[in-house]
Structure formats: structure tokens, C-alpha cells
Amino acid sequence: METFQSHYHQWGAVLFFTVIYGLALLFVPFYRKMDRKPATAYMAFVLAFAIEMHGIPMSMYLVSWIIGRNLPEGVLWGHTLFHQIGYTGMYINIILSTIALFVIGNGWYNIYHKYWSLQKGKGKVVKTGVYRYIRHPQYTGFMLLTLGMIIQWATLPMLIMWPFIARMYYRLAKKEERDMLTEFGEEYMMYKRKTKMFLPFIV
Amino acid sequence: MIEKNRLQMELEDLIDKRSLQELYIFMENHIIEFFSTPDISKYYKTLKNVDYSETKKLTPKIMLAWMAFLSGDHGNLFLIIRDIDEMALKGPEESSLFYSLKAMIGYMMNPTEGLRYAKLSIDILSKEKTSFYMGNAKLTYGQMLANTNQYRLASEMFSASRGIFQRLNHHFLALIAMINELLNRYKLGEFEFVVDKCKEELFMASSYTEEMQTYVNAIHLPLGMCYYEMNRPHLAIKHLALAKDSIDQLGLFHMHGLIELYLFKAYYVTSDTLAMEQLKNEMILTFEKMNYRQTDLLISMFKVFTAEKGGLHLVEVDIEKFELEFGKSGIDSHSIIIESLVYLKLKGFSHMIRIQDIEKRLENLKYIGMIPHIQMTMLQLAELYYLEKNKKMAVYYLKEAIQIYKDYGICGCFCALPLHTTAILQETDERFYSMIHKNVKAIDIVRVDSMLTAREKEIMNLIAAGKTNEEISKILFISIGTIKWHTNHIFGKLEVKNRVQAIQKAKKLGEIT
């Protein structure tokens, strides 16, 4: 079992996780100003995760101070539900983030090649790669990344922020679909009917 | 039968008695009976010469205007319409009936005008009520939406209209709405849905009276169109012929054009030149004097497609007609115009339409979602690129067209043109090709401009005869190095790696015999 001291106050690790998770944002094509809002929220989430995991466990201090007693490991600090599931959360996070990075990367690759490379001066509806099953793979990716972080190391701000981030990405996706409908009309409509928004065959 | 006669007899009775007030009231009370049968033009003939100037009531006038419109009597229609004062309309139902008619007329001049009036005719009625008026308003709005290429909204509107008419037991109107819905779903590529729905309807219709059977047979139209797209031309002919009988009998004027077009295409696929000739002559006989634009174009198209080999110069009149129309509206021209011009271009008789035009058209078609035309256009592009020796683009568009087959299960258009691209089609997707090849019309490859030069052909022939480089060098008096240089070129042009492949490929392409 990790000791309290070994895990906290490692600011190099904080920086490391912030940068690593931040890198994922580079694979999202920004093409409108408003798209940055969910990205900022995502970065705040990453910071909340990295700082509380390797910097200072603020949630724990705050909650302990309010309720007047110490929190057991795995509740708002440490590996999530450590006494119940041990390190399982961490493994789940590794799996989820691998899937997320693949989905984000694949989405970027297909968009970059099919939509932005502008074969004839105009983009077209991308239906290849992960886009064959879901319409917003990159947002799925970010939701999986953040969910994974919660499962590994849940803190108070993360639990509060996650529903908001999910909602932001959902609304962004909805808005993008409306834009695509005006741009591509019935072709996008038919694509939409054959695919799901975030999870293949589910939603 | 009895019902119909009763209505007509009572009308005649009332006209004879010259009790016009009673006639107007009778009309108003029986409005639904007028419109829910295919016999509207009979009633119109009976009522046409009645004097309507006396009545203050507008409903009988609007009814008469509708009847004039549906019977194709446009001259009288405008006279009646001019006599109706919009400000004097009473109640939502009367207004709705009037605005939907305005939409139908407005569309002829200006499509957005038509849409506006049709929308108005729905909005003016209260939402909850499922009345004849609501059904009619939705039917009209659906027509406007379909005419402005909004197929999905249109089919939803038709479907709603059908639901209303069904609940009210107006079978004829429900059928009209349904056929319209299915034609729009056909455009959206929902072929399985259309086929299933047609079969279901025909099955239920087997219990109907004989009189109803006649008009139910119109449902064979969307069914036949689907079978045509699914590359089942014989089935298509069977169903389209049934639909044509029904439409001829009912005198559903505005359904003409579509049915003949698909019947003709199916005959073309089955190479039934006799039937094509017959259909063409029948069309000329019935429609040529009417100068109705759509049937006019269709007749020209039939003439172009039935022209004998090398006889296309005999249809110059029709070619000029197409070129003139295309010059006016460009890629927004009617699909019959585009299809004919591409056919003529492939045959080398008209160069008006360019590849860029067709690519732009494809983009537009994708936007509105007209699936059968999308596939046809992709194939046209493949053919045209092939003729321009741009094999890469030809293969690209062939693949796209095959993808449409994979997504929607249609491939009829592959047999609707004599194809130059059969060889690369076979290369691109062997399985697909073997499935459709039964009906495909390949062009006998007599290549004026072959891939290989004369010298290369000479060498290729010797290679095919099994000669080694050394033997060839002795026969042609050139060095082995030169032969190697030539063979490398040949392999490059044929895109093969070795002699065996080269021989096969050259034979397939008709470079050697």
C-alpha cells in the first residue's frame, strides 16, 4: 500500500499528468470559438485530478474539516473505493483511457483526411473508421477519459464537474449536428439514422 | 357503384329542378363524397355549367375550382378563382380548403408561394381535429414539400394525411396519400419498406370490391419502381404494367410520365425493343399534341433511346430540345434532360454537359437525398471519366456506386446504360459484377484509341504467341534491350507484373486477339 507521503507533493507528477491528458486536446479540430468551452472545462477537470492525486488532497481536507472526522481511503482521496475494490479502478482507468485515446486518434485521423484535406475544395460527410458507428468519437473519448479518472481517483470537484462536462459535450455535439444538417442535408440525415451519437449501438 | 350513381343522379335532379340554393346546400353537405372517389371529373362535367354568381356561399365555388383543377381544366379554374373573395371566407374549414387550392395553383408559378399557402391551410385548422380538411391540407402540403425536394418531410406529411383518411374510412384518398408517401420513401432509398408496404396493401385489398381494386392497383407503381432499382426488370414490368392499366382507367393525369419512364427503362434493360417502340408510339399518340412539358421530354427521351445504332443523327430535333433546356436551367434541369444528355455524350452526339456539371449535380442530389439518382450519377461520372482516360476517378466513382448498393441494395442503373467500364467494374468488385452481369450491356470494345502503340501491340501479340525475348528480337530485327524496354512499357500501361498477366489483361481489353 502506498503511503500518504509518497503519493502527495510530487509536483513533477502533477505536471506530467496534466500534460499527458492535455495532449489529447491537440487531436480535436477546433474550428469555432465556442468549441473551447468544453475543452477548458476538461482541462480544469484534469487539473483537479492531477493536483489532488499527486499534489494536495484538498477534497479530503475540506470534507474532513466539515464533518469533523477523517475519511477512509478511497472516499474522495486515494484510489477510488480502495477497501472495496483495491486497484481495480486503476486498471479500469487504463483500459478506458486506451480506448479513449484510440477513439480520439482515429476520429482525428479520419476527419483530418476526409473532411479537412478538402479533396475538391469542399469537405464531405465522413463515414469511415470509428465514424461508421458513432458520430462524435472524440467527445466519447473525452467522456471516457474523465470517467476513467473518476474510477481511478475520485475527488469532490471531479464528481461535481463530470455531469457538467458530459452535458457540455452533449450540447456541443447537438449543435454540431445541426450545423452538419445545414451543410450536408439529407446525406447527413441518413448517416445520422444509421449511427449513434457516442456509444456504438447504444446512444 | 350505387353510391356514385346516387350522388350523380341527385345532382342532375337538383340541376333540372333549377333549385340552385338546394344544390349549393347539397354540395356543401356532401363535400367528402365528392372528393373521396376517383370519379371527380364526372361530377365536374355535371356541375361545370351551373351558374354560381347568385350564391353568397363560397364552399361550392371552391369545390368547383378544386374539381376543375383535378380534372385539368385550368382555363375555367382561373375564372372561378378570380370570383372568390378571400376576405369573405368563413370559418377555418372553408379557408383551409381555399388555401390548399391556392397552394396547388401558386406552386405552378412560384414554389415558395405554394409552400406558404399549404402551411397556412394546415395552421388555420385546429390541431386536435382529424377531419377531411386536415387530411386534405396535409396531402397538399406534402405535395409542396415533395416538389421542393424535401422528401423526408413530405413522406411524413403524406403519412399523417393517410392516417387521417384511414381513420375516416376514405379509402381512395388514403391510397393517394400512401402512394405519394411511398414514392418519396423510394427517393430516400427505403426500398424494403416500400416493397413490404405495397405487398401488405395489396394483400388487404384482395377483400375490397371490384371498383376499389381498380384504383388499388395504382400501388403497383412504387412497387415496380423498386423492383426496377433492385435489378429485377421482369418483375418490374409486370407490376408497372398493372399500375399503368389502373392509372389509364382512372385518368390520373398527373401520374403519367413517371410510370412510362420506368416501364421504358425496364424494357430497355430486358432489351425488349419491340415494347419500347410500342410504348413510344403510344406516348406520341396520347401526349404529343398536349405540349405538356414533362411528357414532351419523355417522348424525346424515348426517341433518343430507341434510335437505331448510328441513327442518332435522326433525332437532332430532340437533341436540340435537350440542349436548349439544359442551357436554360443547367444542372437544375429535369433528370430526364440530364440523363439523355449524358447518354448522348457517351455516344458522342452532344458535348453540352460537362463532368464538372455532373459532379455539382451529384453534390446537390446527396444534399436532398435522392438515392436512385445518386447512384445513377456516380455511374455516369465513372463512364465519363473512363472515356477521358482518367481511370483513377472512374474506379473511385464505381466504388462509390457499389457502396450505394451495399447500403441500399439497388443496382438497376448499372443495366440502364451500355457500359464502357465493365472491365474495371469486374476488377473492382468481382462479386458485385457477377451478381449483376446477367443484365449488363457491355459495349463491344472496338477501341479507336487503344492503350498500346502499334509496335507494342506487335510485341504483345508475339508474347501471347509464346515467343521469348530472343525469338522476338530475331523476328522484329531489334535488340533484346529494346524489347525489354517495350515490354516494361506494356506492363506499366496494363498495370501488370508479368507476361501471363499481361496476356490475360491485353485480351480482356481487346488490345490483342
Describe the 3D structure.
The complex is a heterodimer of chains A (203) and B (513). By secondary structure, chain A is mostly helical. Helix content of chain A is 66%, strand content 0%. Chain A is elongated, with a radius of gyration of 19 Å. By secondary structure, chain B is mainly α. Chain B folds into three domains: 2-230, Serine Threonine Protein Phosphatase 5, Tetratricopeptide repeat, CATH 1.25.40; 354-442; 454-508, Winged helix-like DNA-binding domain superfamily/Winged helix DNA-binding domain (Arc Repressor Mutant, subunit A, Orthogonal Bundle), CATH 1.10.10. Chain B has helices spanning 2-17, 20-29, 31-35, 40-47, 59-70, 74-82, 91-109, 111-123, 132-147, 151-167, 171-187, 191-205, 210-216, 220-229, 233-250, 258-269, 273-287, 293-306, 316-329, 335-347, 355-368, 371-387, 391-408, 422-428, 430-436, 454-464, 469-476, 480-494, 499-508; strands spanning 418-419, 441-442. In chain B, strands 1-2 form a two-stranded parallel ribbon. Chain B is elongated. The termini of chain B are far apart. Chain A binds chain B through residues 120, 122, 184-187, 189-190, and chain B through 151-152, 188-189, 359, 363, 366-369.
